[in-house]
TrEMBL record:
InterPro entries noted in UniProt: Acyl_CoA_acyltransferase, GNAT_dom
Species: Catenulispora yoronensis
Stated name of the protein: GNAT family N-acetyltransferase
The organism's taxonomic lineage, starting at the top: Bacteria, Bacillati, Actinomycetota, Actinomycetes, Catenulisporales
Domain of life, per lineage: Bacteria
Segments traversing the membrane: none
Domain N-acetyltransferase: 137-273
Pfam families xrefs: Acetyltransf_1 (PF00583)
Cross-referenced Gene3D superfamilies: 3.40.630.30
């Protein structure tokens, strides 16, 4: 097992500095100490993934990104600077706020080493990984456009919004990679109550987990844990070495029991034109 410091450095090097697009049609651009992702359409996610700035270069880089995305997206557009607590300069967050970015809810970056999973699970995990979803819940693979509607419904139930964007993302993924299942919906009482996806990042050894929010009346029953465990097994079967997820403090005990380690805190700084 590598140290937390080395694991964080590995994450930065492979998943941020050498990032690849995580949505169909998106592209990665690098310029002046900044790595950004530009979506294929205005509704896609656009933002800064990584930066190697210091006190002398940060201000100009921030202004440059605002100008770059402003010209690209126009009035009503928005982009995000995904900042981490270990990023430099140390006052990057304050600089973003002064430039007009608004911070969203912070989440903790968790990473698990899952190399051993492919060989039969680390000794600490067999009792923690549930063998199946909780009673009354089934995990449905997302393979059709109608399934995308279920993802949208589950997203709205869990978060109160974001359903259309989640649906568009699923449809784009299905069109680009129709033979692979990357998203699952948890069904209970005949309706979707949670949705979650996994991405594999070729050449990095990493897979990442997204979503997993659950409708309020179904929280606390093990659905999130089951979705994480399901994707954890699949990542191991695919030969991934590491599994990454950004999560709130509510999920922390679940993730730590499954072998994840907290490495940093990430905050989305959003800029709207």
């Amino acid at each position: 097992m590598i140290s937390d410091k080395d694991l964080l450095s590995l994450f930065d090097a492979r998943m941020r500095a050498a990032a690849v697009p995580d949505e169909p049609g998106a592209r990665i651009e690098a310029a002046d100490g900044v790595i950004r992702q530009v979506g294929a359409t205005p509704r896609d996610w656009h933002g800064v993934l990584y930066s190697t700035l210091d006190a002398a270069t940060a201000e100009a880089a921030i202004d440059s990104e605002i100008a770059r995305f402003g010209a690209l997206l126009g009035p009503g557009g928005e982009f995000e600077w995904k900042a981490y607590s270990h990023d430099r300069p140390a006052d990057l967050a304050a600089r973003l706020a002064r430039a007009g970015f608004r911070p969203g809810a912070p989440e903790t970056l968790f990473v698990a080493e899952i190399t051993q999973l492919a060989a039969g699970l680390p000794s600490a995990l067999p009792s923690a990984l549930p063998p199946a979803p909780p009673p009354g819940v089934t995990l449905r693979p997302v393979t059709t456009a109608s399934d995308a509607d279920l993802v949208a419904e589950a997203t709205e139930a869990a978060f109160g919004d974001g359903g259309q964007r989640a649906r568009d993302r699923v449809l784009a993924r299905l069109a680009a990679d129709p033979d692979t299942v990357w998203t699952w919906v948890a069904m209970a009482d005949g309706r979707p109550v949670s949705a979650a996806r996994m991405l594999v990042h070729p050449g990095t050894g990493f897979a990442s987990l997204w979503g997993g929010g659950t409708a309020p009346e179904w929280r606390g029953r093990g659905i999130y844990r089951s979705l994480v465990a399901h994707r954890m097994r699949l990542a191991a079967e695919l030969g991934c070495e590491y599994l990454q997820v950004d999560a709130t403090d509510d999920s922390r005990p679940i993730l730590e029991r499954l072998g994840f380690r907290a490495l940093s805190v990430t905050t989305p700084y959003e800029y709207r034109f």
